[in-house]
Amino acid sequence: MVKFIKKILYPVISKYFSHTLLIEGVLRGTEYPFRCLLVDNSSYFEYLKTRTFSDSPTVLRKSRIWIPLLRKRILTNADSFDLCIAVLPMASEPTYRGLYDYKCTKYVKQIIDTTGSWDEIKSKFSKKLRNKTNRFQKKYRLHYKISNSLKDFDYFYHRMHVPFIKKRYGDLALILPYDKLKNYFLKGGLLFVMKDNVAVAGSLFKMEDKTCEAYRAGVLDGDESYIKIGVQLAYSYYQIKVAKENGMSSVNLRLSKPFLNDGVYQTKRQWGVTVLPDYDEGSWVYFFNAKPSEKIAKFFEINPLIADTDQGLIGILGIADEADVLAETINKLTRQNRASGIQGFTIITQTNTMNVLDKKLVEACRSPMELWANSDTPHKELSHVRSDREPARECLKKQSRSPILMAHRRPQ
Q1: Which domain holds residue 39?
Q2: What is the mean pLDDT of residues 297-315?
Q3: Which of 38, 275, 375, 383: disulfide with 341, CB 3.0–4.6 Å?
Q4: pTM of the prediction?
């Protein structure tokens, strides 16, 4: 009875109260001492804690706070922590607008556009991925088949999905119940990757509203030898082909964490996806007290973020070493992280922020000189750009008329 009451009351209470943890440790990948105030009611804070700290940080204080009072605590106690990360209901946004520095959704969606020709779809794959998909079918004798058989689903669940998840995540493995996946299967189907007529990997999917949604997957007995020959790549590749052949306009690769270096996000990004915010979950992740400083620049260097703004999704990148604040470095960072759906980038340094606002420029430019050669600035005014080693911040001050790349300090 007590558990039942908690289950009913917890969602209601969570709208108004939240757990807070004041944690101190070493910023991951550095020797910097770092103190973070985490505010969250879910297990998501464990993910944030792991991304933030090396080893096991110390919990200095643990409490529960009435959500509207968090604003006052941040305003009056900002000196007591380096950064506050708060996961709060989206309804709280008016309360914190103007106070948070950045916000994002807990997850982002990654969608593949399949409206063009097959060659156009493949042209959006990363170069490395295109090379792999051009050869894996013949090299490893792979093909696919679609099944709606319950017997095949049982084989998929017990021989592929469960062993694969257990081997991949160990003690942290979250195995979805058989009945839940079965219900999903009955609404869609199962794609098997076949090697010499043996099913060695599989993925659940369903087609609805012109979208093919890829769901849970697995590899036969979690066998690494199959993974090495690219069966995971194969079931994604074939899923796109099946969607195209069935007149679907997109493939939904579902959710990833909103960090540009997240492994799941990076893997899906290779397929030429469009990145979209996931508003369905109903929470914002706010970053407070994230003004330029050495520690904050390092935090976002380690944890490049996909932030949600009034202008769309923006990548937040950090450069902690002032010697690296070069036009060459900035251009390289933005090119490495560009993706359809990300409108531009904010670069955080120890003392400043810089905005790269024009996505077309980010995609097209290959050198710092091109930043201005492709802008509206007259060519004769480019004479001061000496080399890639000139700090970008100084370069940009001289080019204040350029509408493409602007350096500015965040409003206080």
Answers
A1: 1-106+281-289
A2: 95
A3: 275
A4: 0.80
